[in-house]
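Milestone M4 deliverable, item 7.
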Amino acid sequence: MKNARKLSIAILLLLCVSALYGSYHMITDPTGNSLGLPFYLLNGTILNSYLMAGWILLVVVGLFSMITLLSIFRKSAIYSILIMLQGIIICIFIILQMVLLGENFAIQYVYLIAGAALIGLGFLQNQRKIVVDTERITRPRPEPKSHHHKHRKRK
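Output delivered:
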């Protein structure tokens, strides 16, 4: 199960760094020129610059990936659910992007695969957690050991 956790961390780290990089450039340069994003992509959408898209990317992918990574490192009880949730969010984010833009790019498919992988990895880790928790609950507790000390004198 450690491999699933390591793979989840690697994917989340990649998504987090790329989202922070992209959102920074979208926020500081709403024209999209610094990222090579053509302005015509926004035609027909509710956005008139890349500023709002940058903020959405920062919060939804960048910051949420960071929170999920922290929960994994702290071994939070819900980290597997957060991994799945991040995968779902990324898939929805990319599908909305594809629909709004009307064009598809290779990077969008990479992110869809990463989102699907996170959903699967989170599910796998959640199932493992359920099994471990069930075993812990159903396993009989051993009798407490007597705590007599040999070196003490008994009266």
